[in-house]
Amino acid sequence: MHTSRTNTALCPTLLWVFNCPALLMVLTQRGFFASANANDTSSMNFYEADNFIQAAEVKRDGPRLNISFAEAIKGPLLSSDSQVQLSTLDLLFHYMSCDGASGKQIQVLVEENVADYVFEVLRLSECKDPVVSSCIRVLDLLSTAEQAFKQRLAIGFGTLISVVRYVSEVPFHPAQSQTLKLIWNYISDCPGMLSTSQIEELVLILTRMLKMHTVAEVGMLPEAFITVCSVFVALLKYSSSHGTLNLVTSVQEASKHAILACLDLSEKHPGQILHSLYLLKETYLYGNGENFNESGNIELRSYVVEVCIKQLLPWIVTTINELEEEIVLGVLETFHSLLLQDCDIQAMRLAKTLVSSSWFCFSFGCLGLYPTEKMKCRVYLMLSSLVDVLLGNGSGKPIRDSALYLPADPVDLLFLLGQKSSHNLELSSCQSAILLVLYTSSLYDERLADEKLVLASLDQYLLVNSRDLQYGAADSLAVMRLVNLYALFRGLAKMNYQIPYSSKAESILFQLMTENEWDLPSSGIHSVSLKWLFQQEKISKLLSYQILRFSRSTSSNGTDIIVQGRNDRILSKEAIAKLVAAGDNYGATIFVCLLTDLAKDNGQEHDIISVVTLMETIITIFPAASNQLCLCGIGKAIYTLCYDTSHTFSPQIVKAISVLSFKILRLVEPEILSSDENWLAVTMKLMENLDTSEAADRWNQGSLVVIGVLSLVLHHSTNEVLLEASKAILFNTSLVSAINSIIDAAHLKGPALVDHDEGTGIGESLIYVLLLNYFSLRSLPAVLPEFVDWKNFFDLPNRMQPLSFIGIHCHDLCRLMHFGSSLVKLVASYSLLQLLTRLSDQRDKNHFELKCTVGYLMSVIGVLEGLIFYSDLRVAMNCGLCLSIILGWEMLDMQKTTLIEKNSWCRLIVEELAMSLAAPCLATKSFINHHKPAIHVAVALLRLQKVPGWMRSVFNDTCISCIIENLSATNVNTEMVFLFRELLNSEYLKTAHIANLNQMLQACRQYLYADITQDDQSDEHVKKTGTTSNDVEEVCEFLIYLMSSESSPDMDSRGSHIAIGNKQLLEEIELFCRTLTVEDDS
């Protein structure tokens, strides 16, 4: 009845009793303090006070008890006896947690600095249990007095960081969750109070906790995991953490490990995966701000997207049937938040990965599994953002606007699409969204419904809404998407003849394309759609205009059109090139007709050049396109541009036509050109515009490309095509005169000619003239068989008659080889080899002798001998072959002269060859290849009727034995076997030599049979496309390749070709064996 008075009387006594925590614990457990406090707070309700003074006493006695309690426990808390500390902490815990304990009671304890004492105990405990656990659970209760506890928490926060470091190392530590909760409270309630060092330390501790939890080193309770994620998010948002670069790695790891830790636990603890997704999303946003330098931001965003692509996406796709809707929504929201950063390259990366994983089908699968409005809204909003990223900003707006009205079933979408939408804005908006969904999904090879149903729905849409479409109800972009979508499913229907379609709907679509402004390159297009469109002859004119627009854009940009930030699934040069090369559509015809129309209808010069340039690119990408263009009459189109046009034949057009003609002629099959007579007129026009009056060092690039075209025309004549055009080139007097002028100008340079390489005006012109001369030498026997008297090229300078056709005399070629640059030497040596080969063949056939002096012949031989060991093996080989041909004529030993016998250079060449091949440890394959030219000279000397006497001293028994010892199955080549065959014929080989050689060749044969698929020289360059940005460099490079491949450098001394590669080596070994058999028989 008089509890309040009793309490007042007990207070002095309790000051002494409170020093006994055990007694107080008993009192607490029996509810003494709880009932006292309850009476304190409720006495006014149960009893009527006699007066106001009595009521005030009752209200004053309760707090005095709490204050006395707080004062009483401070001493034991700081006791040196740990057991006393623990007992006091337990007392304090039970005091605050007993039934009837009020928030006011806890607030009094905080105000009386009890929390400070507990933090001090915690600090002095050095993070040792059980003190840590007791302190943390007490602080957790004290934290319920939020406002009063804030200041104390700020003072003791540093101690909490040490504690959380400790509890993070102990699996399932009971204080983990409460410690993290205290840290979370401080970060939430006291923004701006954390120091950078504290943030860094916390981030490192939390990251380690997540990592150890992922690898199962240290377990973590679900509530602790959720708190860790919450604390991490708060730290990311914390202003002082911005710009701390050394957090990037930790933030990356934490977000990844948080996700990994939840993927297998999502069914049991869905809250964990949701919080880890929240952390991942905030990490991406953190990397999207101005927290680090640009590279740091990019690295962080890239890492988050990598987690989404490599971890989240495969997981959600494979476990979708087992997940709760809340989790699926969380994943979709995370992906959606990343896609909303549509200006970010990482958003595009995620978008492309999603569509490559059939995201549209997956999304509608979610709608089937979770048929709720929340899921439908999330799916369509995310799809709209996905379309925004893939097709450009704002592209997904129709889906966003209609998200609430769109059905969840794709079949219902198709039904809605087939309805008449006149005067129904809501239905019209839905149809626009449906077309956009179908268009984007099909663009990435996703099929939301059966192809037959989709095509039928599109037909129905065109039929019932034709009037609205034709009167401008749809914008041009929507029309283009409709065209692309319809073309795709018509193309698929063509592959499957069982799918019906409406011809009337097709006519409506074509009419719509005719009457509306549309731009084919303005939106993404599927390859099947593009092919079907180019197979429709009815819209060839429309497509021709689209190609013109495309060529204008690419010529101005220099690259493919980028559709609203995208660079894939667009109308690209590669896509068009593939169409033209395929030949199963009107692509090539459209280009030819377009160029013809531009020529006849007075098209702009810029348009003509842009279309021609696009055709050049197409041929470069797909060489087979040259065949299709020729079959469709590109020669006639170029002829029209040359003659049937009001255009002036400007230098720009000349160069454009020249480059196009060169690329066509370099790649087209000869049989396709056999019936095309337009190339004669084109060739004549190009030669008319070749400025031959200019000085040699002032030929422009256009003229040089024309020379390249003429060279290819001559090249094709060897296949018995373009014969008339070749004649026109060979006998063009202006061209012949210009070539002679350039040769004369080069000779005037003398030794200084070596400084005039392809980088100078005269050097570049000289190389092209020499190339034209080479192809002329090859063309002459095909165009005018038996017409040329090849010995005229070998006349002495004082008796030389000017040639009536393109040609350079022997002594001029020798001077160029002697004084010219490396590239001049190369081309001139090929020309000289071609000339000597033709002359030798004619000499053998007609049995005539050359009328030249020994001095003239020796001057030619001197030039050749000086280049036998030239650094460019091709030049050296050509010179070796030329020298072997001349030696084979045996003119120097006529009339009892012994010039070959006394020729020190020939002997030096052979001795160098023998010494090098005989030297131990030097006979590698590359080393032997370097001596191929000298081998041909040695063979030529061995075949002479009067073999020089010193040959036996050079190729003595010891030398031959050493050479054979150095040979192996892997380093022998065709020339070496060729040399030994001649040594065998000349009886230089002994029985031991033959036995060892035969053994080595048999081993070589076995090695070659095991590796017969390999070839020493590949044919990769035959259809090589140009890779240089300079047309002149590309022309020169290809002509040199063509010259090198036609004039095989492996020829014997009589001019007969010795093929290269493993099969050819086998053939040479077989010849050696046959020779050996004949020798044995004799």
Automatic annotation (TrEMBL):
Keyword Signal annotated: yes
InterPro entries reported in the protein's UniProt record: PRD1
GO biological process: meiotic DNA double-strand break formation
Residues spanning the signal sequence: 1-38
Keyword terms of this UniProt record: Signal
Name listed for the protein in its UniProt record: Protein PRD1
Classification of source organism: Eukaryota, Viridiplantae, Streptophyta, Embryophyta, Tracheophyta
